[in-house]
Design brief:
115 residues, alpha+beta
Length: 115
């Protein structure tokens, strides 16, 4: 694999591992929502962090920002087909984590106790 390909893989893994990415993607999955609706649905996220997460998702082509020429202006966000595919791709990682939760927690306790 070429260095450029590794960089893309690392970028996507960083995005998937970012604190709020999965929460925002799960919230948007199958929905078109306004900023404040997303903010209320994703418990604990700040406006700054939500803005940053949405911009990152847009940059990667995973989310679409739709602006309506109304008064007052209305902006909504939704996942693109690529974003939906990305959500499907990280789903198995979440399933792995849940399936192996007890083993992972036990390994962490053992490691932390030995340190």
């Amino acid at each position: 694999m070429a260095a450029q390909q590794f960089e893309l893989v690392h970028d996507l893994l960083d995005l998937a591992g970012a604190r709020w990415t999965i929460d925002v993607i799960a919230t948007l999955r199958g929905n078109r929502m306004r900023f404040n609706e997303i903010a209320h649905a994703v418990d604990g996220i700040s406006q700054k962090q939500l803005t940053s997460t949405l911009r990152s998702l847009q940059r990667h082509g995973f989310a679409l920002r739709v602006a309506f020429a109304t008064i007052p202006p209305r902006v909504e966000y939704e996942l693109t087909e690529l974003g939906i595919d990305f959500a499907r791709s990280v789903g198995p990682l979440g399933a792995f984590a849940l399936q192996n939760q007890h083993s992972i927690e036990a390994a962490r306790r053992d490691f932390d106790g030995a340190a």
